[in-house]
Structure formats: structure tokens, C-alpha cells
Amino acid sequence: MPPSSLPGLSLLQVHRLVKRFGALTATDEASFDVRAGETHALIGPNGAGKTTLIHQISGMLAPDEGGLFFDGEDVTALPMPRRVREGLVRSFQITSIYRRFTVLDNLVLAVLARRPGAPSWWRRARADAAAYADAEAMLALVGMSAMADRVAGDLAHGEQRQLELGLALAARPRLLLLDEPMAGMGPDESARMVELLRALKAQHLTLLLVEHDMDAVFQLADRVSVLVNGRVIATGTPDEVRADAAVRRAYLGDEAGT
Question: Membrane spanning segments where (predicted)?
Fold first, then answer.
């Protein structure tokens, strides 16, 4: 059973996770929860342990101590593919797409991948009208319908990140973990990504956002958790986090008061 000290309506509960690498404690009893339908941001300075914590949530790393609960079920020992099937899906910081395929074909393969059996039959995929219809719906959701026939490798960086978001959405996530979706983007691309994430937020998709762009974080997040030296030192609304003296000292600096 999930720990009683965390809210019962939480979709994801991260409970006192510890991960050690020799003498280094990368996550130190880190705890926070993500409520169904909210956009929750995880922020912290470089070296705070965010990547290690996200690896544990997604299933890439096993914690040494603590637990993870998804929709009330203990998923601490589940491998990443099982977590994806349960609806806990991660979009990575580094874009991973089929660069020689069209944008639409990338989405078709992602749609087919969530079905039983391995998608090793390109001829069958080409004939699967339902998969194409589903993929076209994903393209519309991420604002890429006009790019359906473009080769994915020819897309700009921001467009590739949009496509990767569509690939993650094709897995039908109940919670989507976004690892620095604005990484490497210019101001215009970042603004477009913020609008796209705002549209997903409006559809009540649960998002866990790891991001260094504080403007984006405070535009999008319902709640924010701050990780410093492997510990979550504060969780609250953006205004509450801005006003927290410990957060300002550890991370946000003078900008938190502006």
C-alpha cells in the first residue's frame, strides 16, 4: 500500500527514494507526489540529483531504498516497459526519432508499438488504416498535421522535439514525464513548446516536467518540487516556491523576489 502520509488522490507517489553510488548519495530520501491532472515541475540546480531521481521514476535505475507508487500500486520493482504499459511514460531530453522516415510514419510505428507483438512488419503497418488514423490524431494534438509527409531528419530541432512528444503521447500515457523539453531551443521554439504543453495541460493530462527554463516552469506548473543535494526541500504552488527563503538561497536567487 502507498504511504499514508502522502495524499490519497496522488497518481504518482515518490516516497523516500535513496540512490547511492559508492560514497555519493545522489538521492537522499527524496519524496513528493504528483496529483492526477496536474502539471508538476521538478527543478533544482545542476548536480542536485534530478537525472538520478528521474531515472528511478522511469525505471532506468532501481532505488537502494524507498518506494514508488503509481495509482496506488507499488511499481518500485517494475522494469521500464512494464511501467510504460501501466501508463507511466517518459520523453527523453535527447531526441530519438526515425530520421529517415516521414513524420507520420514515425507516429504510426509508435502507435503499433503499444499493441501486443513486435512491430517488425512494415508492409502490414502500411496497410493498417486504424493505426494511421490514430497517428494522424497524435499529429493534430502536437500541431504537426501539415508536416505529416516531411522526412523527420529534415525537421528543425524544435519540430523534432514536437515529434518526440507525439511519440510519447502515442503510448497513451496516464502520466507523462518530460525531461527538459525545451533543451537546446531558441526563444521562439521554446514559446511554441510552452503553448503545446499548455494545450496538453488543458486536456487534463498529468505531466511531470523537469526543466531549467524557469519562465516556462512558472507559466505551466500547478505545483513545483525543488531538489537540492538529492533532497526535496520544498513542494508548493509557484508562488509558494518563489516565496520560500530556503529555495531562494539554494536555487532561484534574487530572481525569486522579482
Answer: none
